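TA notes. Do not distribute before section.
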Amino acid sequence: GAVRFPVRRLVRTMKLSRRLASLLPVLPKMAVDGLLFAAAYFLAFRLRLDRMESSDLQTIALTVAPVVLLKIAVYHLMGSYRSIWRYSSLSDLEELTRATLVCVLGVIGVGFSLPQGLNVPRSVPFIDMALALLLTGGVRMFVRVLHDSSGKRGSGWSIPMRLLSGQSAGN
């Protein structure tokens, strides 16, 4: 038959204080991602524009906070903060990719909401998307490699180092 869900479970609301308390464990991840999102956004402008005019700096200053908050919200809603970074895998990278693709729509929307005279160049949201994915995915994979190489999960760097030195695994 059909799957039934108790009505109470679907309607149940969480108090704001409990909801905010549930975010405490992921706040450090959100903070790191927030810094990375801001860096990606600024670098996207920097890579796109030969010279940064005062209007470009004003656009960045006006839009960086909404863009960062929007991206953190999308990443949270799409489950990017559920995993533990030291166990990041390809499925986590797929999740980041989906969230980043949704974020590009938000960045485009923020660009359309700017007052007259300020604009986000059309390519900036896409450059920002690529940089945000590279930075957030890179940090997660760096944490995983760091954890793996610390000896807590297997041999870490021993196999690649043997390969690089030309020694066989049997020696």
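Switch to the second chain here.
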Amino acid sequence: ETSLITTIDLSNNKLKSLDQVKKLVMNQKFLTDLDLSYNEIERIDDDYLFNTTDFVELSSLNLNDNKINFIRPNSFGSNLLSLIALNLSNNKLSNIDLRESGILNLISLKTMDLRGSSIKSLDKSTIVNELLSLERLLFDGELLCEPNNVDMMQNICRLNEAEVNRETRRE
């Protein structure tokens, strides 16, 4: 049964898996904000949860301060058309493949927070050329880029490295 709930805050609940979350959030067709922060989730390994049509209105997904060390391929599906903000900060990620994880499918994504992880680098040209809506990337590592043409170089200026790291230096 579908409800009119738009926000679910499950932060600080000692949740260990997305399977526990699934039972609580399924059939919430109007859900715009889902906060799963400050739990004990170690893996995003349920390729169904964020691929279901239940989350077409979801605009904010907060997974910060968990223990996430693995993101299964295609975890972030093409049904997250409205997702504007993705917070994966302060987790145990050491590597993230933006294409494989499905993050590059997030066509509305404006803000992505990856601070406080062990991720050393991201490919800046992939971010700039495929996450076209992205305005803020909060990230502690290095953005690697080897532009192969002038147009790509101009797009890269859109995502300025100073802007990327400014937020982390304020803390």
